[in-house]
Amino acid sequence: GMRNRRQRTVGKMPARRTQAPPDVRRSGERFRLLVESVIDYAILMLNLAKVGRQPLSREITSLNVVLDAARQELAPECSDRRIDWHIRDLFSAPCDPGLMKQVFVNLLSNALKYTRPRDPAVVEVGQTTARDEPVVFIRDNGVGFDMQHAGKLFGVFQRLHKARDFEGTGVGLATVERIIRKHGGRVWAEAEPDRGAMFCFTVGPATR
User: Contact 171/39 with Cβ under 8 angstroms?
Assistant: First the structure.
């Protein structure tokens, strides 16, 4: 009868595709990335707000000690890469060591990211002076950027490179700017396309 014919017809039908069509997969991937971006946005905005509310706990701090702690935290990112580190003596300054460690983590992570195409990557950390103030600089041999876009660097969710080339949300440098400003310091950058970048900041008077 009709039921038997339907069963025979169904039995002759090819097996259903278990893989979604490409356009469906692309839509699903876009949705997943959107959800992840919203979550990242919420977390990072909370972190920025926390930096703004957190009172400074200043103490005379060796910036080399803070730098070493930041490098240890980032060690997993360096395990499968050839990186030439050039670490100079830094000064000590009255600052919040926890927040200053975050500054170094964010700036070093930025240098490691944008030197990824280099073998070896070269990252130099040292000190100089500007306007009679001691300055910390972090210089790399990465992809650099055009200085005409430098004004966007420290804005929340501002990016100077395509997301498909380098991951990230652009909040790390905004956090650096907020922490340094909270200390009464300044932060800026210098770069050339394909010739590396240098980030500089001040934190107050040096004690040595």
Answer: no
Buried b (16+ CB within 10 A) or exposed e, 53-80: eeeeeeeebbbeebbebbbeeeeeeeee
How many domains is the chain partitioned into structurally? 2
Answer yes or no: do 73 and 147 share one domain. yes
> What is residue 161's DSSP assignment?
S
Query: Using an 8 Å Cβ cutoff, are 134 and 202 in contact?
Result: yes
Q: What CA–CA distance (Å, rounded) separates 202 from 208?
A: 15
> Which uninterrupted H or E stretch holds 77?
helix 75-78
* Its pTM surpasses 0.90: no
Per-residue model confidence (pLDDT) at position 162:
46
CATH number of the domain residue 66 falls in: 3.30.565.10
